[in-house]
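Action item from last week, closing it out:
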Amino acid sequence: MIKEEESENNHTVTATITDKDDNGVPDIEVTFIVVSGPNEGQKSVPNPVTDNDGQASFTYQGKGLQGTDEIQACYINPDAEGEKICSQTVTKIWNPDNTPDIELSPDYELNLVGEEHTVTAAVTDDDGAVSGIDVSFKVTSGPNVGKRSDPNPETGENGQASFTYTGKGGVGTDRIQACITFDEQEICSNVVQKEWTEEIINLEPLRKKNYCDESTSHEVTATIEDLKGNLIQGVEVRFELRQGPNEGLSDNINTNDQGQAAFSYDFQGDCISGIDIIRACFTNKAGNEVCTDYGQTFDNDAFKEWDDGVTPVCPGIRPQPGSAFQGEVGEFYRLEFTVFTELVGPFKFEVTAGQLPPGLELVGDDGVIQGTPTQAGNWTFTITATSTNPDEFGCEGSREYQITIIQDDPPVPPGPPAASPIPTNTTWGLMIMAVLFVLSALYMRRRGHI
């Protein structure tokens, strides 16, 4: 962590190094450097060492130039040889004397992609708040880089102006700055950060088995949180039994203050052996549907196995990966399949529908497609994986794939333009006959025969 202090033309930053229990770590050499701005390149010489509170400071003097410095501190982790750990960057704004100052807040916030974010600039001088000044806001880097205030807002009587925008650029951290113009000089604020995260969903339990004579009721719980682990309440979760003896059952339930929504159901009719596949979905702040994605590379739907004690049950089985990659004519291609299942196996693999691209073949039954494609195009086929373990009753599962093969045209080598073709003997003969015909016609006209 790094914090700032200042006195006249000097500026001081203090780095604090702590362990996992937030106790200060002493005797660590810290390197400070101004990484950008009018004082770029200034650094701590010699490097200070942390005290018993884990703190070390760096003071430098501005060169008298206007602009924004970015300062960072780093150290070498003594517990991991050679590992360099660096702080966040902090900013120092250098403005001419007797000019207004502009401060941007909040310094940091975390929001979901698709939500709105507001930053507020406060403009002050020696007499207090400055009103009636246009403030330009801009996202200088991050997933929403380039967003800006248009038109620029004007400070009110409290010297403040605000800028609101919607984060649509995806996950990442925006850096935002505000500037004003005073006496034909641009004066800019500190740089603040806005981090954007997304929601994810998990189901529990992912696997459970019940015997029909024990219970015919089952419950799954969906938890929605962001990528930072913050639980999200008030989100509608859509549960659906996509496959199995209770296929078609569904319900919509909102998450509670723990970010959880619980869905329970009873077996419909007389309990028989089978596997229900339960999917959960919700719409995130960006307006996109997020699901537990059964059938993709990572299968996170819940599997509920019912066992009546009579009919054997095959646990779910799906070939992996979730999709095939693109190939190129004349380039060797190899794709290996595995399975997602609780079965022991081993498994054999077959193409049970469709067609492989010309030049590719399924080698044996071990789940490897390879070869050199000979034709561009799109080919769709189905891979079926079957357990060959005699104790697993020939359980099988399938997935449809598409392989796209492209033709990479060879580049035309540089060089002079191709020469005109040399006339052949036949061409010369035709040309000579044409000339003779013309000369003969001219001769006859002069003799009066034409």
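Closing note: The first helix runs from residue 425 to 446.
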